[in-house]
């Protein structure tokens, strides 16, 4: 592996959060290399400078969503974030995501995040089987397009970490769970539309969103959770007006 | 009423009232600016509002919408800033809305029935 790495070009000053809820930033110097990602930097520290550093990653190619961290104050997928894009000259500060319990160093407990997916009824519920035996879904239908727009979520938790509404209303289901709910509301095969709408329209659901759009801004997959939330607001409003909520 | 239905209705009322308030506020500001341009005394204002059903209806609608919108906005603010999210915050918001409408209604009545 080493032989394929480019030659170091000076050093990068890196501060990394150590500890859990209580803790402090620890300072490291890491050789700066061309095309280096933030995840490369963290991995370098763990392999060469301090093997006790805890962090998460799996795929390294932006698929699994496990490597999200706050880099210089902004939550990012670190495996796809080049150091050159976020710290051209200055130092690098890496911390765990916000709004989730900090377990150790860069690792936070994703439990509450996925618990909200459950609360938002983020699981597919099979509906009645059509007479043909399977649902033929037109890929160009408006509902299928809505699904298409939100289905690529990798569950990294970046939108949740960046959402101010989560900060102020900790029970708020958050952009990712609501985005998931919206894809299922548009899935013709799903049989729990009404129950799901009831689950996401409570006081910690879609109506709590202030449209600040941090989720859209920060989503590494360029999805639009805010559009999904707006969809849920519309759908629940229509259902309430028709007396079907 | 389930929580989802309640929240959705309150959300609808909050957004709907905002939508309706926009032209009312614009008309109110325009009316004020136009009316006061040449200088206007209190008695001259009362002369125009007395027995004026159109103005009373206009400000009655204004009052109702502003009372609802303001109380609902404050409810959200209290929930997020103070973490006050139980049923009691709903009651507090309802009391506030009623208070605004009652006190404003008294003022409106005074303008309509000015001696
Ligand atoms: S490691 Fe899988 S998305 Fe970054």
- Name the largest protein-protein interface in this structure: A-B, 21 and 15 residues
- CATH structural class of chain B: Mainly Alpha
Radius of gyration of chain B, CA atoms, in whole angstroms = 17 Å
Radius of gyration of chain A: 21 Å
How many strand units of chain A? 7
Helix content of chain A: 25-40%
Biggest sheet of chain B, open or closed, and with what strands and sense?
none
The CATH architecture category of chain B equals: Up-down Bundle
Number of discrete helical segments of chain A: 10
- The CATH topology of chain B: 3 helical TM bundles of succinate and fumarate reductases
- The total tally of domains of chain A equals 2
Structure characterization notes:
The complex is a heterodimer of chains A (245) and B (115). In chain A, helix 3 (111-119) packs parallel to helix 7, helix 4 packs antiparallel against helix 7 (175-185) and helix 7 runs antiparallel to helix 8 (193-200). In chain A, strand 3 (68-71) and strand 4 form a beta hairpin. Chain A folds into two domains: 4-108, Roll (Ubiquitin-like (UB roll)); 111-241, Alpha-helical ferredoxin (Fumarate Reductase Iron-sulfur Protein, Chain B, domain 2). Chain A contains ten helices and seven strands. In chain A, the strands form two sheets. In chain A, strands 2-1-5-3-4 form a five-stranded mixed beta sheet. In chain A, strands 6-7 form a two-stranded antiparallel sheet. Chain A has helices at 38-49, 83-86, 111-119, 142-150, 158-162, 164-168, 175-185, 193-200, 214-218, 225-241; strands at 11-19, 23-31, 68-71, 74-77, 92-95, 102-104, 107-108. Chain A is elongated. Chain A is of the alpha+beta class. Chain B has one domain (3-112): 3 helical TM bundles of succinate and fumarate reductases (Up-down Bundle). Chain B is built from four helices and no strands. The model of chain B has no long low-confidence stretch (mean pLDDT 92). The interface between A and B is medium-sized, with 21 and 15 residues.
